[in-house]
Amino acid sequence: MRRLDIDRAKGLAIMLVVFGHIVARQDPAHVAWYPPLRRGIYGFHMPFFFYLSGMVASLASHVRVPPRAWAGLLKSRARRLLLPFAVMGLLIIAGKLAAARFMYVDNPPHSVLAGMIDLVWNPGRSPAYSLWYLAVLFVLGITTPVAVWLARNRLWLVLLGFVALEWATPPWHLYLADICRYGLFYVIGIGAGAAGARWTDWIDRWHRPLMAVFATGFVLVARFGHAWPFDLRLLALGIISMPAVHSLVRRPWLSSDRILVTMGRYSLMIYLFNTIFIGFTKGVLLHLTSWNGDHFLLFLVAMMTTGMIGPIVLKRTVLRAIPPLDRMTG
């Protein structure tokens, strides 16, 4: 049975992800309000997404699986996550090489082969780094069941292990740094899913103070966060966002919001294709005007609209007619 509060939460989270993809490299000039807002959003939106992913994994019984089921889990997670990661990585890399001949393109690859190598081995240079969440989620999805089994179902031991990884300094190769950075939030989501009604009752009861703390933290990170280490503000604001933002989408006034539910149900499709639509929209608009100063608001609205709506239209009009692509995109 689908949880509408999780669909709404995923809808809100994917909107924030698209917002974060609007500016890939160079900030627009003379737009003083955008960098602090993005800094605040980047302080929690991906931790919140991993929390939701961990909760879904727990509710779907993908965590406490016996060793005999690990091979099947590996196969299903690879089909669900690694396949779209590879296919979309190749599509983005090839698309950037082609589009760079006609318009401005952020971070174009030198070649298809170099782009694919960077996609896997050097994520920091990847032309399709926006897909990193799929690679990290795949690793977490297949390693946490092993960790839970080794810990004899004592989730708190697994949690302590990921707390320790928060302070590790692994290389960026193979997304190791992102795995260590975001694994804790995934495991907290697993715990929240396992707690069931005890967790949701608690966040509902403490909604107002949780939101007050979160709002205060958001303002502080947006205003002063540039002076703090990224991992520190990610950890602090990310942890408080999980109960606070989840409680927000459970409010009665949002219970009939079909927009967030729709966005949530198409979240994988939006995640996979939003940067393509954003990049195309930006390239077209840059042929007409710059995106600095007051022009940036036009770019923001246009890129958010195409980044959110474009993938849904593509799914409904094209991909549903092609069963393999329909299954791959959720």
From TrEMBL:
It comes from the Bacteria. One of its GO terms (cellular component) is plasma membrane. Its main location: membrane. It holds the Pfam family Acyl_transf_3. The chain crosses the membrane at residues 41-60, 81-104, 131-150, 155-173, 179-197, 209-226, 232-249, 270-289, 295-314. It is an enzyme of class 2 (transferase). Keywords: Acyltransferase, Cell membrane, Membrane, Transferase, Transmembrane, Transmembrane helix. It is found in: Cell membrane. Residues 5-310 form the Acyltransferase domain. It is a multi-pass membrane protein. GO terms for molecular function: O-acetyltransferase activity. GO terms for biological process: enterobacterial common antigen biosynthetic process. The keyword Acyltransferase applies. Its EC number is 2.3.1.-. Belongs to the acyltransferase 3 family. This is Acyltransferase. It comes from Acidiphilium acidophilum.
